[in-house]
Structures are given as C-alpha cells and as structure tokens.
Amino acid sequence: LRTHAPKALLEPALIMVLLVQDARRSCLRRDSGVLFCFWILSLLCGILPFQSLVRRALQVGFHRKLRASTWSCSAPKETSFPARLLIAFVSDEDAFAWQGYLYAILLFLTAVIQSLCLQQHFSLCFQLGINVRASLIAAIYKKSLTMSGATRKESTVGETVNLMSADAQRFMDMANFIHQLWSCPLQIILSIVFLWLELGPSVLAGIATLLLLLPINAFLAAKAKTIQERNMKNKDERMKIMTEVLNGIKILKLFAWEPSFEKRVNDIRVRELKDLVNFGYLQSVSLFAFTCAPSLVSLATFAVYVLVDENNILDAQKAFTAISLFNVLRFPMGTLPMVISALVQVRPHLEQGVQGDPMTSVQSKTLPCPTQELMGGLAVLLPQPSCLCSVTLDITPGSLVAVVGPVGSGKSSLVSAMLGEMENIKGHINIQGSLAYVPQQAWIQNATLKDNIIFGSEVDEARYQQVLKACALLPDLELLPAGDQTEIGEKGINLSGGQKQRVSLARAVYSDADIYVLDDPLSAVDAHVGKYLFEHVLGPKGLLQKKTRILVTHSISFLPQVDNIVVLAGGAVSEHGSYSTLLANKGAFSQFLNLYGNQEENVSEENTAGTGNTVGQWQLEWLWVLSKRSTSSQKKAQEEPPKKLKGQKLIEKEAVETGRVKFSMYVRYLRAVGWCFTFWVAMGYIAQYVASVGSNLWLSEWTDDSVRYQNQSYPAHLQDLRIGVYGALGISQGIFLLFATMLSARGAMRASRVLHQLLLSNILHAPMSFFDTTPVGRIINRFAKDIFTVDETIPSTFRTWISCFMGIISTLIVICLATPFFAVVIIPLSIFYYFVLRFYVATSRQLRRLDSVTRSPIYSHFGETVSGLSVIRAYGHQERFLKKNEITMDINQKSVYSWIISNRWLAIRLEFVGSLVVFFSALLAVIAKGTLQGGIVGLSVSSALNVTQTLNWLVRTSSELETNIVAVERVHEYVIVKNEAPWVTKTRPPRGWPSRGEIQFIDYKVRYRPELDLVLQGITCNIGSTEKVGVVGRTGAGKSSLTNCLFRLLEAAGGKIIIDDVDIATIGLHDLRNNLTIIPQDPVLFTGTLRMNLDPFDQYSDEEVWKALELAHLKTYVQGLPERLLHHVSEAGENLSVGQRQLVCLARALLRKAKILILDEATAAVDLETDHLIQTTIRSAFADCTVLTIAHRLNTIMDSNRVMVLHAGQIVEFDSPEELLRKEGIFSAMAKDAGITAADTTAL
C-alpha cells in the first residue's frame, strides 16, 4: 500500500483499513451505508429544493417585486423553494389563502426533515469516531504488550502516551469530517451549475477568483503541516522530559536539580510556543482569505456582469440569488481546507502508530523437551558489552542454580534471554513448564497488597497465608494501616525497598509455577531477612524445594547450599559446577571466594551446626514486640466500630469539580491573555461585523437602483461607485478579521506561556507528600491534555464564540430594520433558548469533566504496564491486562458517548424551535398579506432561518467554551497546590557550610502525612565531625525516613536537626540540599548525555568529571564508549546495568564532595567485588567527611565508628560495633544471623 499508491490516497485508504478492521463489530459496516444515505438526504433537503426549483420560481415572473428575497445568507439551507413560493404568494394579490398556509407548512417540513437527517448523520459519525478511537487505543496497548526490547528503546513511554491521548483524539475528529471529502466538491459543483443558469458566463469571473484563492490555501496547508510536525516533535520531547522529571522527582529534590530541569522544559516550551503562534498567524491568513472570498467573488461576478453588456441590469432577483449561491459555496470551500488540515495532522501519526515498524513479538517460549536447557548462542543487541556470547547451559528440573559474576557480566541479560526479552541471534532456548519471574527492581502495581501477590490467580486462602509467612510479610501487615487491603501507590511508593522486593517474591511463590527465575531478590532486604527468605522459600528446605530455581545473586553465604553454580564473565560462562567442584578447580571463582569469603567459613560452620536458635531468638524478640502491639490494637479494635482506616487509601480519587465553571476562570484566562489584547481583539470583531452589515445594506440599495432607473440608462459614475464601495466593504471585513485573529494568536500564546510556567514551577515546588498521593498519570494528564486544550482548543473556541455572538447581534439588527414586529417573536424564543442552554450546558460540562477524570486511569494503567512488561510477559498475563485496559476504556467511552448523544439532543431541540420560528414568521406574512412587500417577507424569513442556525452555534460554542475552560480550572487546581518551604531564604548559611559536618538530632519527630502516625518518635543523638555511622534496623524501622529528614523531604513534626550550629529548618531547601550529598537507594538516571546526568548545571570542568569517574571505577568503561562523556543515556538509564547506574550515582556524589554523605543502601544492587571497590573509594575519598550509611549487609558497616540500631522509629542501641556485639542485644543477634563475630570486626 505504501509503495504503489499515490500519497494523496494513503490517508483515506489507511483510515478505511482501520475502519474495516474495526468493522468486525458488524454495526460499522451497517453504519457506513446508512451514513451515506442520511448525508445525501440532508444535502438534497438543503440544496436542491433551494436551487433546482429556483428557476421555476423566477420564471413565474415576480420580477421586480422579489426585492430582498434572500438577504444575508450563511448556510446551505437558507432560502428553500417553499420560501420562494411564499414570497410569490404575498406579491400576488389574486392567490388563494390556502396556498399561503400550504407553503408555510412546506417550509416547516423541509426544515424538520433536513434537521433530522443531518443529526442522524452526525450521531452515526461520532459513534464511528469513538469506535475508531477505542480500537486505536486498544491496538496501541496490545502492540506495546508484544514489543521487543529493541523496539521499546525507540519510543519512550511519554511518546506512546501521546499517541494514545492527542493522536487517537485526532482520528476521532477525523471520522466526523471524512464524509465532507466527497460532499464538499458535490456542493461546489451544484452551486456553480445554478449560478451559470442565473448569471451566464460572467460567473466564470467569480470562479476564476475562487480558483486563484485555492493555491493560497494549499500553500498555507503545506506550511501548517510542517509547523504541526515540528510541534509534535517538541510536544513529545517535552512530555518525555516531564514524565522523567515526575518519575525521578525524589532525586531532583535530593540534589536540588529542579532549576536545571525546569530550564530544559522551558526551552522546549519556547520552541513549541513559537510554532504555535506561527500556526495561529497562518490560520488567520487563511481565515482572511476565507472571509474575503465571497465578497471578492461576488464583486468580480457582478462587476463583469454589469460591465460586459449594457443591457445586463443587476436587480434584486439576480443579486440575492447569486449571493445566496455564493454563500452556499462558502461552506464547502471553508470546510474542505479544514478537513484537509485534519488529515494532515492525522498523517504523521498514522505513520508512527499504525504503520510503525512491525514490532517483533517475543517468541513463544514453551517447547516440548525433556529437560530445561539453554543452548546455543544468546546474543543481545545492545551497544554495551552486556551481551551474551555462546552460552550453553543445561538445567535439570527441580534444581537450584545460582548465577554469579561481576557487574556487567551479563547476569540480567541471561535472565532476560530466558524470558525471551532479548534478541536471539543464533541458537535457541528450550523452556518447559510455566515461568515465574522476580525482577531486580521490584515492580508493584497500584492495587491492594493482596491483589499484588495474588496477581490474577485463583484465591487460595491457605496457600496465601503460607506464602505471607514464608516471605516474612506478616510483621509488615501489622504495620500497614489496613493490613493486606492497604492500597499500594504507584511504583509501590508507600512500601520500603525491602517490602517491595518481598511482595514481588511472594507474587512469584503464590503463582506456583514450574520454573522460578529470580534476579537478585535478596539484595534489597536486610541480612537476617535474606537468610530467613532463603531458608523458608528458596533453599533446599524452602517452599520451592521441588521447583527449578535460577537465582542470580551477589551474596556468597548461600552458595554452599545450591545444587549448581554458573559463573559468568564478559557475557560467557567461565565455569559452572557445584560449590565443591568450583573450589577444587582453583579458577577465578575460588580466588574470588578467598578474597571476600573470610566470613564464609563461619557461615558454613554455623550452617552445618544449624543456627536455628539465633534465628529463633531474633524472630522471638520481634514477635514479642509485635504481639504486644497487636494485642493493644485488638483491644482498640473491639472498642471502636469498623471504619475505613486512615492511610488505607493512599491515592485519593481525582476530584471532579461540579456545578458551573466559576466566572473567575474566564477572568483568569483573559488575564493571562492580557487585557489590552482582549480589548483590541473584541474591537476588531465588532468592526468586521459593522462592515458586513454595511455591505448587505449597500447591496440592497444597489438592487433598488433597478427599480429607480427602470427605463433609463444607468449612470456610469454611480455604477463605479456601487462596485467600488461594495468591494471596499468586503475587503475591509477581511482586514478587520485579520487584525483580530493575529492579535488573538499572540494573546493565546501569552496565556499558554503564563499558565504552563505557573503549573510547571508549582509542581516542582510541591512537597514529596503530594507526589506520594497523586498518581504520575494524573499530573501528566495536566501537562498533556489540559495544556493542549489551553494551547489549541480554547483560543479557537473563543474566536468562534465571538463571531457567533457578533453574527447574531448583526442579524437581529437587520431583521428589526426590516420587520419591527418580528422582535415580538424573538422574546419568547430567547427565553426558551436560555432554558435549553442552562439545561444542556450543565449536563455537557459535567460529562466532559467525567471524561477527563475517567481518561487518567487509561494512561496510568498503560504507564504501569510498560514498566512491568517483562513481569507481565513472564507470567503470561497479557490477556488479563488487555481485558483490564478494555474495562478502563469502556468506562471512559460511556461518558464520551453520553456527551455525544447530549449534543445531538440539543441540536434536534434547537433546530426544531428554529423551524417553528420560520413557520411563525411565514404564518405572520400570510395573515398580514395585504400590508407587506414581497421583499420584506423574504428578508424576515431568511433572517429567521439565519438566526436559528447561528443561535444553535452560539449554544454549542458556549458549552464548548465552558467545557474547555475546565482545562484552565484543572491547571489552576495544581497551581495552588501547597508548596514546600522556599528554596532560598533570607537567612543563608555561611560560605563553606557545613565545614565540620557535625549533626545533632534534638527530640526529632516526623510523620509522612498529617493524618498518619509518627515514623520517627523523638530521636536525640549527636554525630561528631568526620564520624562514620552505620544505621541498621528491620525494614520499616525508619532508616530511609531518617535521610528524608536530613534533606527536609519530610518536615519535622517536633524537635530539630542542627548541622554545624545551623538549624536546618531556618535555611532555604536548596542551600541545605546543595551542601549535603546522597547516594540514593534507587539509581535514577535521566535521558540525556552521561555528563548531564553527573553535572546538569555544568558547574565542573571535564577534568573533575573524569576524576570522579575514575574514582567510581567507570573511567575505563566510559573511555571505551564511542562518544565518551556525551554517551546518550536512554530513558531511566536502561542502556546501563543496574550496577553501572549505581556507580554513576557514586560518581555524582564524588563530584559534589560535600562534608556530609548519606549512603542509602547504595550497594544493594552490586556484587561483592564492586561493593568492595565502592567501600574502599568511600573510605579514601570521604575520609574527612561525616558519613551515614544505611546498610543491609552488616559487613559494610562493621568498620564504622558507631552503629545506630533503629526500631519502630526509635534508637534502641547506639555504640561502636565491638561494644554492641558484646552486649548481646538486637545488633548482635543480627550479626550472628549474618555470620559475623567479634573476631571479624577486629580483623577488619
């Protein structure tokens, strides 16, 4: 299709393909035919009675009396045939009364039939549109579930969400217009034929003028296309950065990097707005052409007609019939460019979404075969050395295989290859049985804890409880506000790292698969928990003892208990065999063990001796604490009736505003536009309509000349004057309109800039708690859909509204000039309109709000799916997620459908009333037959028709405006979100602060959100200058909260923290955060160069950056990259391994080199060798700094000066490691679990 067909046929063809695909819902096949018939019918009612019978009416010979029969026409249904007959009837004294009544009824009936047909057509069109949109979104979702890794790297989540939101919407709009493609040319041809019959060859002058305008339109459309394409790129880029900023907001806050990213977003926004304003200018030029067209055309035609032959006299009958026909021409000629530009906007996205390269699906992974084996070469198409070259493995069913190796040796790649996520270049993988997968970074859904574990399987309560126990989740359930019914936020935001990992493991265990692929699940949990999990779940005695388990691990203490060990190095298997075999081989593995395994013997001895009692003791203590807590909570529970627990719902339902949009929203938007702009835009429109009324009145004077100079020759000077003034008035209309639209384009751009700037800076100033409780999808929706509305929809709706309003005023003035008694009909009419308006607008507005609110979950669900793709595929749950996506979409479709139907409801009512108005004005004419002139009747009837049409539009655009201004309301809602403390305050810390790095906690208390309990319950301690302190404690004891407090991500609920004699609550956040350094738990990287990730403000020289990389052991790796420091990091750093990302974070910290360093479990994701490198680097590079280490592996903090043991938000032990080991407290129990004795610490 793409190669042979001409470009012009491509879009309609593709849209047809889409529709045909969708026509599996057979109703669409039916719809298309029915649509066609309705459209034809309404065309016939609108045009044909109006023109084909015009000739007959004229030939009856009412001649001069036909004065202003078709005054000021705008839509193709103005002066229909019955109207002509009616005028004839009024002019003819001898006609019978019944004829008049018959014509009035005929007039009424044609209007009603046309209205019904047209509305039916629109209704079907819109239904077609929502079907197209739904199938597109579903197709994109389905496609993303089957994308290969390589294809996924090409488009970011942000771009795909954009495809789903803005572009699917464009397709929906396109479906409504698609029939204009054939009906516009048809209307144009009909009009021209009738014009020829009316004015003869001089019509050619008018048509020539029209044809001259066409290339102008084509040129404008082409320019508009290039601007749109540029704009799409900018929009995608902006959304991409915004998505990353919101996902990595915690890192931005910790490093005080918000200004740098704000600048990046604003730079793109500036380009986007520049294109927007140029697009606005193009639109106003084409509007100018469109407005001038009828005047220019009729001017050319009349001038030629009058000048060609002296006998040609321009009388009312010819002039008004011609103008009527030229006005009919206006509609298709105006619509055609719109339809074409809509097609233009759809085209790039067709190419992106529908034709986009066939995304390679992951091959099916289950092949019948007696054993499970990995054979042949597995290679991964990645530019890094993280690919596998000829791995051959054979794994026997029911065995436990450990995969070990240094960072970047291809462990995660091997796992991905087993799951079929890698590109297989040669060889094959045979896997027999079902898979369960635990990724290195746990993927948690936004659902209850229980839903996360059960993950769509059958609920088996006994097995569920058994899994919770084995995965050590029972104590956590006690801590969570609503037990396993607690809602987990997006990305598991209200769980600690260890809890997430255990939930992820529990999900795998519960799924009861045949093969378990575990990518380092024990790295994020504390040592004793890790040991507990190994014993109860993974080990030879665990729940999974009969299953095949492939465990990627860095922890050597478990290796003696596994059946088989695979050692990877540089993407190939360097050796494999049992623990004893490998030790005996004296290869790389045994050297590695001798280096790092000094605690190894203790562990193996204890393992043989059986360390049940120490685990028991730790568990007992823990259970004792819990039982106290749970008994007290049980007592409480008996006292109070059950209610929704506070904190159970984390994500609040999105607020839906109700009632009228506050007037202040319009004011706010106009203030953003600027009052000066607003005033001059209004003046421009008023001037345009004054000119329009003027030209109509002038034409009516001109046609009166035919009566005045009935038997005389027409004076030449008068003829020139008539033509000249008429032309001037026509052109001046266009010029005023051009002035107004150009100004409104500038104003609209100003408003877009102001509102986006306010929204962005406020979101970046929002406190962490806001991001914890607000799904990212919801904030993204503000930046995507709502800002799009402010940019593009509101300005055009405002323009339409003003011109409708002015149109009505000018028409009413004309009617009242002609027939003053028509004003009596207007009063009851306007009262009725007012009520319909109020009734409809309220409904429509609320439906639009519902649409916005039900749309967010579609994107949230999509974002979640993409981040958990490998997990969803490994479990084979694609169907379930497709179903879920369809359900969320259906909910949204309901509100969209209701909205569409409400529009049709309105249209039928309004047009019916309009038809009644016409009927009454005709009836009045029949009754008052003797006293009226034919021309006056024509004017009254045709203006009545006109005003109905325009009033209908006014109601429509008022409600459009109100539903769209909701976007301003929604943006405003986030502009007034409470900010965190100011970034810089008047009290600034002294230069070089903190110089000593002393930290004092004074009775420090903190809670996450006002309604929740305290997380830290009055901590008091002093940490001396350059002291190294380790912080330990079970998951949820408040270790990470401690770091959040130092950076003031959480504000104190009581007490204070003093660093070097400065109370940190008194200084600005950036002054504080710029002077502390953290290596965070999750290594977050952003799209951009490697250098940008290390130093976004360009504060450091290249030498310093290289030095930092060298200390972080990345220098050789980066030097090996083709672009070195400018190496492109993909979204979320996906083209680096987790270990490498961790080292990049270390390099960041080394570059900053503040006096205080916080390590938040920074080495959880790296192997022991890299861990050792990091530890030595930190010891040497940060020797003169105060270092707080939050550790999971006790051996990383055994050389600290002191160790702080946290428990339930309080410090229970705080002393040197030697002392604590002697004391036989919580710490010594943990140390025994990890196999560390007092002898080791002295050795260290």
UniProtKB/TrEMBL annotation:
Matches recorded under SUPFAM superfamilies: ABC transporter transmembrane region, P-loop containing nucleoside triphosphate hydrolases
ABC transporter domain: residues covered: 369-595, 999-1233
Record's signal peptide: none
Keyword Cell division annotated: no
Domain spans labelled ABC transmembrane type-1: 84-345, 679-963
Membrane topology annotation: Multi-pass membrane protein
GO terms for cellular component: apical plasma membrane; lytic vacuole; vacuolar membrane
Transmembrane segments: 34-54, 100-118, 177-197, 203-222, 279-308, 320-344, 669-691, 723-743, 821-841, 906-928
Stored SMART domains: AAA
GO molecular function, a single term: ATP hydrolysis activity
Cell location: Cell membrane; Vacuole membrane
Its EC number(s): 7.6.2.3
Catalytic activity: leukotriene C4(in) + ATP + H2O = leukotriene C4(out) + ADP + phosphate + H(+)
Class of enzymatic activity (EC top level): translocase
Broad class of where this protein is predominantly found: membrane
Keywords of this entry: ATP-binding, Cell membrane, Membrane, Nucleotide-binding, Repeat, Translocase, Transmembrane, Transmembrane helix, Transport, Vacuole
Lineage top rank: taxon: Eukaryota
Similarity comment: family membership: Belongs to the ABC transporter superfamily. ABCC family. Conjugate transporter (TC 3.A.1.208) subfamily.
Record-given protein name: ABC-type glutathione-S-conjugate transporter
Species of provenance: Junco hyemalis
